[in-house]
Specification:
Blueprint (H helix, E strand, L loop, with lengths): L1 H7 L6 H7 L3 H14 L16 E6 L5 H15 L3 E6 L3 H5 L7 E4 L8 H15 L4 E5 L1 H12 L13 E5 L7 H17 L2 E4 L2 H9 L5 E3 L14 H9 L7 E5 L8 H8 L8 E5 L5 H11 L3 E5 L4 H7 L2 E4 L8 H8 L4 E4 L4 H5 L4 E3 L4 H13 L1 H15 L5 H18 L1
Parallel strand pairs: 1-2, 1-4, 2-3, 4-5, 5-6, 6-7, 8-9, 8-11, 9-10, 11-12, 12-13
Helix pairs in contact: 3-6, 4-18, 6-7, 7-8, 10-13, 11-16, 14-17
Keywords: Glycosyltransferase, Transferase
Pfam families: Glyco_trans_1_4, Glyco_trans_4_4
Organism: Kitasatospora kazusensis
Length: 422
Amino acid sequence: MRSWRRLSKGLSDLAWWRLDTGIPDRELVIESERDDVDQSVNRATAAAPEPGQLQVVFVLAASTGGIGAHVRSLAQGLVAHGVGVTVCAPAGTDSLFGFSRTGARFHLVDITPTAGARSDAAAIGELRRAFTGADVVHAHGLRAGLLSDLALRTAGRFPGLRPETPLVVTSHHAMLATGMERRLQRLMERRVARAADLVLGASSDLVARARELGASDARLGPVAAPPMPPGELGREAARARLLGDRPDRPVVLAIGRLVQQKSFGLLLDAARDLGEADPVVLIAGEGPERAGLGERIATERLPVRLLGYRADVPDLLAAADVVVVSSRWEARSLVVQEAMRAGVPVVSTAVGGVPELVGEAAVLVPYGDAGALGAAVRGLLAEPDRRAALAAAGRAQAETWPDEAATVAQVLSTYDELVQRS
């Protein structure tokens, strides 16, 4: 039984943890136990669970995008099925995604992006509290999976915590780091893959990766894009607001966090030559690369505008002629799903789970080839009939994707299987 293996791992199995944090595993456990005794704030409050009600705990690190939206979707669907749901996440995520408004309990756990002895000990202590009475723990992402496993590892020492509680980990992202950070991430990946009772991959390449790392059970767990609320503006009004006195100018839209994975620098390279129609490239999103991108746009006088964080994505899509995804890697890109459902043609790099997501309903180009990316955008802007055909094909392809209800049903079936197995 995997829960027994979880409890019986030797210290040698955690040598990488000491390398990463500089703190012995024993001290980490002592600190988290002390935190269990000393801390009494930020605990979730809710009525006692009903007898026989399935109790699921979600765990995630800080999120401003797809992972948080996915967890909210699952929480809302599971609560509607009568499941008791607790969401463990850092401060700010509940106000951003509204987990508690779904009927789930929110339990504040500050899971930092990188390892830290004291912060991780505090997080493990909070997770132990949240896991009390849980039937399934479902972590989203590598850090969340790692700390959840460490919390369950010592479950037998604490009343109400069961060491046999199944651990599910959803892998949402490929590891793209380099150098020493890449080595540490590989060790973390292997540790989490082998500790989990089930690994769900958001795309087929993530499932294959989990199996390579030694996961005993790895399956595809598609992430459905939540339905977008209707936009406030029609196409003409949306374009007028964005373009001012040039409402006929073609709009090339990109949406995402301004981080290295999204490769917006590649899109800037492509923007140097997008044809005689003089399109404008609009990038919606915030992130650490904003200053560098803004400097390039100004220095090179590129036809690109950084819009910052936007909550009016439906209106942006209504104004767009083409949506571009220039990423180094994506799983089931929510931006691609939203664009195709809205009937906006997509040009994307052929990476990760994008090809299986879009089929023949989008234009795919090799990653890193700015010339190919620019040529694909120019071609679509010059051919209205082709754009219309791709828009129709995108809507048809979107009908083949699992929706939120199907995703929730799949996950719930998986939980039932794991609980019976344990």
